[in-house]
Amino acid sequence: MRARRVIAAASVAALGVLSLVACGKSAPNVAAYVGDTTYSLDRVDAIYDDVQAKYGDAVRQEAVQAGATPSPEQLRSAVTRQDVVNLLVGLDLGKRVAAAKNVQVPDEITPEQLEQNLRVPASTEYAKLWGEWIDLLQVLNQQLPPAELSDDSLMAVYKALTKTGAIQGGMSVADVRKAFGDGGFVRSATALSAALEEEAGRVDVSINPRYRAVGVPSVVSTGQALVFYSLPYINEEGPVTDISSPDSAPSSDAPDAGPGTEGTAS
User: Fold this and answer.
1) Quick one: which of 133, 226, 233, 237 has the fewest CB in 10 Å?
2) Do the Cβ atoms of 140 and 192 come closer than 8 Å?
3) Once rounded to an integer, what is the mean pLDDT over residues 75-102?
4) Residues with Cβ within 8 Å of residue 92, at least 6 apart in sequence
């Protein structure tokens, strides 16, 4: 499967992303601005709700066949609204970088190839966006020269992976270096991060405070399966210092996070 040849795509540097309040873009119905493109909260909610509905249906069908009754928790996908924002923003920035380099992005990875490991039905827009994102990542990773493998970049990827349970926590830098081998996927991730940072600063990216912990959608192959994770490149504890600090905003995962007014998205 082509998807198994994918290398990790993760960010290890802070991008030039500001909160909506900081840059004067404060429409409450907007999740993110990327240049002149606006991603509404309605758009984010629609993608998220689509995942939850179709995932729940799939779990119910499997349970019926097995003669079991799934719990409410089992009917909910692990995908969050933050994951959706991460994907929309990453795709937009990545496409701009590819266009600037005048490179073509082939359509190779299908949602069906990702369905089992992503644990999201192939019919969802979220799975389709992931297929598009991985196609883009593979092209950019080929175009961008690998970056230096620093301890900081190595441990940033490692810590993000521990949150998925794909690798044990508490390892030292030396142990992680040994486990990651030549660290090729971390080098590629660092190069990608630098390219996205430059593009974000050029086009002016602004994020709604409730989604300010933006991360690059990332995936790595273990040789047997794909591990999907997110490596934040901007949050309250990150290295970016020009982010406004508004009052506590609703969590993107909160069940009562309602949809906003319709905006535009491309």
Assistant:
1) 237
2) yes
3) 94
4) 34, 35, 37, 39
State how far the Cα of 83 lies from the Cα of 3, in Å rounded to an integer: 20
| pTM, rounded to two decimals | 0.78
Query: 61-83 as b/e, with b when 16 or more CB fall inside 10 Å?
Result: eeeeeeeeeeeeeebebebbbbb
* CA pair distance 210, 263, nearest whole angstrom: 17
Cβ neighbours for 214, distance < 8 A, ≥ 6 positions apart: 15, 17, 82, 85, 86, 89, 207, 232, 233, 234, 235
Token couple for 54: 């179709």
- How far is the C-alpha of 103 from the C-alpha of 126, rounded, in Å? 24
Helix axes 81-100, 41-66, angle to 10 degrees: 120
Q: Which amino acid, one-letter code, is at 99?
A: A
CB atoms within 10 A of CB 117: 18
Name the strand (E) or helix (H) holding 233: none
231 φ, ψ (degrees, to nearest 5): -110, 105
- pLDDT tens for 125-153 read 999 999 999 999 999 989 988 888 888 88
* Cα dist from 8 to 4, 92, 151, 261, whole Å: 11, 18, 17, 35
